[in-house]
Design goal:
The complex is a heterodimer.
Chain A (H helix, E strand, L loop, with lengths): L3 H29 L4 H15 L2 H12 L4 H10 L7 H26 L2 H9 L4 H9 L4 H16 L3 H7 L9 H10 L3 H29 L6
Helix pairs in contact in A: 1-5, 1-8, 1-10, 2-5, 3-9, 5-8, 5-9, 6-7, 8-11, 10-11
Chain B lengths: L1 E11 L2 E11 L4 E5 L6 H9 L6 E6 L2 E5 L4 E2 L2 H4 L1 E4 L11 H8 L3 H10 L15 H14 L4 E5 L7 H18 L2 E6 L11 E4 L3 E2 L1
Parallel strand pairs in B: 3-9, 3-10, 7-8, 8-9
Antiparallel strand pairs in B: 1-2, 1-4, 2-11, 4-5, 5-6
Helix pairs in contact in B: 3-5, 4-5
The chains are: A mainly alpha, B alpha/beta.
Organism (chain A): Mucilaginibacter oryzae
Membrane topology (chain A): Multi-pass membrane protein
Keywords (chain A): Cell membrane, Membrane, Molybdenum, Transmembrane, Transmembrane helix, Transport
């Protein structure tokens, strides 16, 4: 069995999760504060990948990143960057596709913390960032762990978006889910079964891990 | 001295109500504020600490404008240096007793003194969920004192303490407040609770129609 689709999938999921931890946490914090209408709009846009068919999202990303027009053309002409049919393109698409899995649990957890925790920190002279880092984040650790694992697992299972934006280039964009589809098309059921089993095993372990962790750790910080 | 003359609209059960406060609190002393539930006592403290903003008016502390709607001055809570004891304590579940104090100040000597004052020396490495209600309340008071505030705002600060502990803590607390020259406002719905403190008494009724 060619293991490169498995490694590529794990690499894609790992990088996507890291990027979403970096940009998703501040974004979730920002969204958790205040009730401005434009925040609701942004949250709705972030949540769209949960309900849109992945092929629709992939189609729009393909159009956006196409080097022939618009934003993709500007990227290509200004920075010689072509995102379609490339691994970086897969990363960008995965970040957008998996964003609700990071933002949703983290934002909900932050909103459930009593506002007096942040207020107490402010009266001690601490800035918003210090409060976020030292008080808020440590008290939503179980939700943070759940969000990171779900983001990773969800990226492992991507198909429609990666097929649209990345195609099926061995070693570059051919992730495990594409390899399964490709093997079935070639009537190579043995390979399809191998890739499927590996994906099944990894996601089963991850999801079970989340449930086990939540059973023992995910209690309210004030309980 | 704290001079407060503000107005704030509040969304309440009976519809929108207006909280109007026009008071002066003596500097360097203790003011005991009594009033029924829902009269706006907690909001008064939050207005002074900048945890909520007035719609209009001014708050002057020791001659400095902390809030002035006409001049668009509004100091952040970080810049007001007010110690705040929350009614629900607002302790940080992830921090131990000593970490609460270390988060507020780097002064080790002061931290040790506060631990002694609150009789929490032996519980320094315990987290809030391993403390009794009274111990949690003492920690909330110590944390507010850790920043050596010029203004101390306490919302029902002794409700979970037994009478012996209350008497001991208040005795020590009075010394520390005098030493720091703190202007302290203590809110309670129970007059007996604060009778151990000498100070100005204020019956508070901030909510109007």
């Amino acid at each position: 069995m060619d293991l490169s689709p498995i490694w590529l999938t794990l690499k894609l999921a790992g990088i996507t999760t890291l990027i979403l931890l970096l940009i998703g946490l501040p974004l979730a914090w920002w969204l958790s504060r205040g009730r401005a209408f434009f925040k609701i709009l942004i949250e709705a846009i972030i949540t769209m990948p949960l309900v849109l068919p992945p092929s629709v999202l992939g189609f729009y990303l393909l159009l956006t990143f196409s080097p022939k027009h618009g934003f993709g053309k500007w990227l290509y002409e200004s920075f010689d960057v072509q995102l379609v049919f490339s691994f970086p393109g897969l990363i960008v698409a995965s970040v957008i596709y998996s964003m609700p899995f990071m933002i949703g649990p983290v934002k909900s957890a932050l909103q459930q913390l009593p506002s007096s925790l942040a207020e107490a920190s402010y009266t001690l002279g601490k800035s918003g960032w210090q409060t976020f880092w030292y008080v808020l984040l440590p008290n939503i650790r179980p939700s943070l762990f759940t969000a990171a694992v779900l983001t990773f697992a969800h990226t492992l299972g991507e198909f429609g978006v990666v097929l649209m934006i990345g195609g099926n280039i061995p070693g570059v964009t051919r992730v495990a889910s594409i390899a399964v589809y490709d093997s079935v098309e070639k009537m190579d059921y043995a390979s399809a079964n191998n890739y499927s089993l590996v994906l099944f095993a990894i996601t089963f372990v991850l999801v079970t891990g989340v449930f086990v962790f939540n059973r023992y750790h995910a209690k309210s910080p004030l309980a | 001295m704290i001079r407060i003359n503000v107005e704030k609209k509040l969304n309440a059960y009976k519809g929108q109500q207006v909280l109007q406060i026009n008071r002066t609190f003596a500097g360097g002393g203790i003011t005991k504020i009594y009033g029924p539930s829902g009269s706006g006592k907690t909001t008064l403290l939050k207005l002074i600490a900048s945890l909520t903003d007035p719609d209009q008016g001014e708050i002057i502390v020791n001659g400095l404008p902390w809030f002035d709607s006409s001049r668009k001055i509004n100091l952040s809570p970080q810049k007001r240096n007010t110690g705040f004891v929350f009614q629900n304590y607002a302790l940080f579940p992830n921090m131990t007793v000593i970490e609460h104090l270390q988060y507020a100040t780097k002064d080790t000597e002061w931290i040790n003194r506060l631990l002694h004052l609150g009789k929490l020396d032996t519980l320094a490495t315990h987290k809030p969920d391993h403390l009794s209600g009274g111990q949690q309340q003492r920690l909330a008071i110590l944390r507010a004192l850790a920043i050596k505030p010029k203004v101390l705002l306490m919302d029902e600060p002794f409700s979970a303490l037994d009478s012996k502990m209350k008497m001991e803590l208040i005795g020590e607390l009075k010394l520390v407040l005098a030493e720091l020259g703190v202007t302290a406002l203590i809110v309670s719905h129970n007059q007996q609770e604060l009778e151990l403190f000498e100070g100005e008494v204020m019956d508070f009724e901030g909510i109007g129609e």
